[in-house]
Amino acid sequence: MSVFKRYRDLGVVILLLAVPFFVLRVNMRAPSDLNALDRAVLRVTAPIEFAASSLGRGVSNIWESYVYLVDVKADNERLAYDNARLREQAHRLEKNEVENRELRRLLQLRESLPGDPVSAQVIGKDFTEFFRVTRVVLDRGSRNIRPNMPVVSPDGVVGKVLRVAGDAVDVQLSVDAAFGIDVEDERTQARGFVRGTGNPSRYSCKVENVDSRDEVEIGDLLVTSGKGKWFPKGLPVARVTKVVKREPGRDQDIEATPTVNFSRLDAVLILVTPPQDEDVAPKPTVSKAGGNR
Known about the structure:
With about 290 residues, the protein is of the alpha+beta class.
């Protein structure tokens, strides 16, 4: 039984070697030299060769597609990394441009103000139900900072110095209910007194002592009047958002929004040498009609 198995295995091996050789020999012969057996072999092996060839091409295409996709994935990952890096660089450049623009505005404002203003950076905020205060730290030491000194930014009036502790200064914002400043309408020169509302949900002001005969409209810019020699004249304070006319003899009901965006305030200037040596904020004067002005 073992001898038969040995010869059988040998025969299978010879057959497996002979068949491809025979088929190859037939395919290599010229068509004119083919006999009947050769043509029969071609008819039998043609479908097999076609299927094998198709299978080989399919496997080759799959492998090439896999290699291509691997390369594409690597390229996509590299492009994604480069894109993220470029976006980060663009964001950093944009941030630097914004900072440079703000510094230029601050420098221009500093050059236009009297005396030697001291610059400071905002480091914290303390907003409560009653007070609107921000803390700044001086860019250079100064022993001349005192309470009630004006604090401004390129966008307008920020507030006044409240407390001083070394290089740290607490600034009472213009939206604080205890802060007030004399203003005039830039368009019509109508006089009024802007006071913070202390609203905990938004930055807002009210404009008091505006006579019913004065022309004030929504969108008008209110600037410092320079009265009382506290703040320099012409600094933006607030923009009118609501006007309710009253009957003659009564002041108008006016609301406004500060020109300074306190949520984005980064740098300020403290006017160490105000136009006049006064350490207290001006109070509204009393008109002959009995109303506050």
